[in-house]
Write a structure and sequence with these properties.
The structure is a single chain. By secondary structure, this protein is of the alpha+beta class. Helix content is 47%, strand content 15%. Helix 2 runs antiparallel to helix 9, helix 6 crosses helix 8 and helix 7 packs across helix 8. The chain has two domains: 83 residues, no CATH class; 84 residues, Winged helix-like DNA-binding domain superfamily/Winged helix DNA-binding domain (Arc Repressor Mutant, subunit A, Orthogonal Bundle), CATH 1.10.10.10. It has nine helices and eight strands. The chain starts with a helix and ends with a helix. A hairpin with a 7-residue loop joins strand 4 and strand 5.
Length: 203
Amino acid sequence: MDDTAAAVSELVDQMRAFWEAALEPWWGLIVPFLESEIAARARRLVAAGGSAAFDDLDPRLSWDGSTLTLSPAKAGPRTVQLNGRGLLLVPSVLAWRAWARIDGPWDPALTYQPPGIGVLWLLEAAADSHLEDLLGRRRAALLRSLDRPASTATLARRTGWSPGGVNTHLAVLRRNGLVVRRRDGREVLYSRTATGEALSARR
């Protein structure tokens, strides 16, 4: 094996060791958390337009309907025309603030820290406990039942509980950042947040 091949092999071993020590133990939490963040942000984008997609990404971001500004940026001022290429939004559990990728050959992208990321790292402490122990039986059942957005009436029919009781439990889940609600015509639909998604995955 020549020196270059040996160096590459050593680098691969180091990367594998880093993966096994730093990321693999958390991967079962990270994946559903990020998948839920992507789905929730896409729903907001469709329901409320571009401004909703950028509202809580980073206080340094501003959107005026046509221009997205990140200021101050670490690099010097630059203006990038998308020219129909689109802008990828990339949530990362390792990002601590938003940063832009604007150099080729890759498509323009904005990497950001998803809201609620701090709770993700606390979930491992609860991994050995049942969700019922953490939330109570009824709240755990409601959280698990929100694989798809649902109204209070729908959840009441599924569970056989009164709409008032369902609302009370949903209010607690919402105050603790596990579910969100949005209006869809005459209904108010509840869905899991990224934190709720990650927590419900740990059964």
